[in-house]
Design a protein that fits this description.
Number of helices: 11
Radius of gyration: 21 Å
Structural class: alpha/beta
Bound molecules: flavin-adenine dinucleotide
Oligomer: single chain
Strand content: 25-35%
Strand order of the largest sheet: 5-13-14-15-12-17-16
Number of strands: 18
Helix content: 25-40%
Shape: globular
Number of domains: 2
CATH superfamily of the largest domain: FAD/NAD(P)-binding domain
CATH topology of the largest domain: FAD/NAD(P)-binding domain
Order of helices and strands: EHEEHHEEEHEEEEEHEEEEEHHEEHHHH
CATH class of the largest domain: Alpha Beta
């Protein structure tokens, strides 16, 4: 049997665990190192877009996914007063899920150890691999290292990049509502968006319809810390949406608490791969969430990388990691820009140029959602 590559992944988020799933399915030995002491995930929903589903459905997760997700086709858009807007873009199916359920499912299928309580503090390049150093004193030598350690990536800094956050000037309030609190809660289906001037509001059911995930985007003058979990005030949120459609106001009134999330991204990085080390997910390309692509692009990264490392000899690893970087940098940079544009489309309905923004949004949906990252990676090997 050929000698298998040993790959170390820093970070057991959606990006790191999806990469572990894809790499191990292709015969690579994978070890994941997570800084947190135990699995922990914010109480929030996540939409898994069609481009990620193309990949996940080919894996051992396929049947399990059906059990923990609710499904939708496209996005139902309404004005702030609740009038339906023409559909306009074909998105294909997407699945909505509670983040904790999705992470637990990924942890259940990943082959190879996931070591919690291992916070990476340094990455050292070696001639034939790389060494990870952890705060607890442990070290790990690997043929390749993947930094999937999120927006404040240590691995990114270790390969010589300092990236600066760019604020979108908005804050998202997030929260989960128990469906039974609303007369119509159990009937809610799919992704629902209300679009207004300077604000937008999205909701979708998760946890088999028991909960409704909401995300409310409002302008903000203050630069917030980049975190998903700053507490927010439900009364301030209600004031932001006074006069909007009754469904939006009902959802906000049913919230027990809410969190605020500052919207930031980064300009595309100059490179992701150096020697035997590369980046993936938010460590490589944080993006604003308006096309629901944060997780989708992280999942694409992992599956593309798995194709490019399959059958690679050890001395080919640096070149394969550069090929991965070149292929993914191009696509994720386009998705980052499209995500910014989508945010403007949702929140500037009365401004000049909205017809052009609708057109741009529909065109982007057409190239973002049907993409097959494994096929694209195979094409560059041929
Ligand atoms: C609550 C929440 C809601 C979200 N909602 C949306 C959404 O609606 N739409 C959307 O597009 N995107 C959303 N995102 C973003 C999306 O989930 C991410 O873009 C995507 O999951 C990619 O994540 P990642 O694995 O690259 O990074 P992360 O999910 O940030 O995972 C990074 C992991 O690395 C670990 N880590 C960090 N530093 C170290 C270290 N030094 N050593 C070891 N481990 C380390 C962290 O503990 C974490 O587990 C959301 C994220 C969160 C947290």
């Amino acid at each position: 049997m050929p000698d298998r590559l040993n790959v170390a992944i820093v970070g057991a988020g959606i990006g790191g665990l999806s990469a572990a799933l894809a790499l191990s399915a292709k015969g690579t030995n994978v070890t994941v190192f997570e800084g947190a002491e135990s699995p922990r995930e914010a109480g929030a929903g996540l939409s898994i877009p069609p481009n990620a589903l193309i990949l996940l459905r080919r894996t051992a997760l396929c049947d399990e996914l059906e059990k923990i997700t609710t499904r939708s086709h496209g996005l139902t858009r309404r004005t702030s007063m609740g009038e339906l807007l023409p559909d306009g873009a074909s998105m294909g199916p997407s699945y909505q899920v509670h983040r904790a359920d999705f992470l637990e499912m990924l942890l259940g299928v990943v082959k190879g150890p996931v070591r919690f309580g291992h916070r990476c503090v340094a990455v050292e390049q070696a001639r034939a691999g790389a060494r990870l150093v952890f705060a607890n004193g442990a070290v790990c030598d690997a043929d390749a290292v993947i930094g999937a350690d999120g927006i404040h990536s240590v691995v990114q800094r270790q390969i010589g990049i300092i990236a600066h956050p760019t604020s979108e000037g908005i804050v998202a309030y997030r929260g989960l509502v128990q469906s039974q609190k609303l007369a119509w809660g159990a009937e809610l289906r799919g992704l629902n968006m209300w679009m207004g001037d300077s604000r937008s509001f999205i909701c979708f059911p998760v946890s088999q319809g028991r909960l409704i995930n909401i995300v409310a985007f409002v302008p903000s003058m203050c630069d917030m810390e980049e975190t998903w979990s700053a507490p927010g005030d439900v009364r301030s949120l209600a004031a932001e949406y006074a006069g909007w459609d009754a469904s939006v106001r009902d959802l906000i009134a049913a919230l027990d608490h809410t969190f605020r999330w500052g919207m930031y991204d980064r300009a595309p990085l100059p490179y992701w791969s150096r020697g035997h080390v590369t980046l993936l997910g938010d460590a490589a390309h944080p993006m604003v969430p308006h096309f629901g692509q944060g997780a989708g692009q992280a999942i694409e990264d992992g599956f593309a990388l798995a194709v490019l490392l399959e059958h690679a000899k050890r001395d080919e690893i640096p070149a394969r990691l550069r090929a991965y970087q070149d292929m993914r940098l191009e696509r994720t940079s386009r998705v980052q820009a499209a995500s910014r544009m989508a945010g403007r489309f949702y929140r500037f309905v009365s401004d000049n140029g909205q017809a052009e923004r609708l057109q741009a949004w529909m065109s982007a949906a057409e190239w973002i959602f049907p993409y097959d990252a494994e096929r694209a990676a195979l094409a560059i090997l041929q």
